[in-house]
Specification:
The chain is an alpha+beta fold. The protein has three domains: about 100 residues, Rossmann fold (3-Layer(aba) Sandwich); about 120 residues, 2-Layer Sandwich (D-amino Acid Aminotransferase, Chain A, domain 1); about 60 residues, Dna Ligase, domain 1 (2-Layer Sandwich). A five-stranded antiparallel beta sheet has the order 13-12-11-14-15, with helices on both faces. Strands 7-10-8-9 form a four-stranded antiparallel beta sheet, with helices on both faces. The two termini are about 40 Å apart.
Amino acid sequence: MRMLILSRNATLYSTSRVVLAARARGHDVSVIDPLEFQIVVNRRRPELFVGGAPVPSYDVVMPRIGASITNYGLAVVRQFDLMGAPVMNGAVAIARSRDKLRALQLLTLQKIDVPITVCARSPAGLEAALSLVGGCPAIVKLQQGTQGIGTMIAETPQAAHALLETFWAMGQDIVLQEYVRESKGRDVRIIVVGGKVVAAMERVAKKGEFRANLHRGGLGRGIKLPVSYRKAAIKAAAVMGLEVAGVDLLAGKRGPRILEINSSPGLEGIERASGVDVAGAIVDYAEKFAKKHRSLSRAGFMRRFRASISAERVVGE
């Protein structure tokens, strides 16, 4: 199988682990920086070039698009989509998950529990917004942040006003979110691949920090997932349309509450904490995904592609 990984750096742990797992299974793997592609739009058919040469066909394409290149990276993935390439995590699905507010809107349409979240763009409604999320402390988030970057806690209304007004002045879109006190600086990261949970870990924030992200110094340990957490993670990934997803959730009084979904989850922390070969599970699923795609006609692919876009307009049952 010819496999392409879209990644800015082939030496990153997650990228290199997938490469090693694929090669161990006898696959031919290429890693190309999304910024190296030239997107060709014309009347005949969509094309991609690298270094002045047409991109060859691949059995499966795996995007690992970082937040720093979201726009161009998504344009490249979208071009692969339009060319009919088998892409594990299409552009529509990645865009859904990357926009925090959009993702939460779609999750709640499907009756998936999330922390109460308010998006406001004017100081005039800030007092009402704070009241809606249960007052302070409250979480302030950039809509496009990752790895805990752009996630802050406002301990007082004055702090909330200062944070929001500063970011609004910078033209940033911000969401205000309920602080789930019972989580106590802990969250759960679950990796879903092909509609199945393959690994999970609990993350615990370091002392003095409310974010449990490992990049923020949090500690991870493998856990046995309750059935409700497993079901919530699988459903959340499906709502986003992601074949591979990292689902973050909190333990709430009502059960699991989805925080966010990552389309390019890091593998290092969860592989070490859980002892699971997540990269191997991803490659195993890629084999099945490519085989399934080969049996899909061009017309069938386009129907599925259009349906994934129009699905956002339909309220879940």
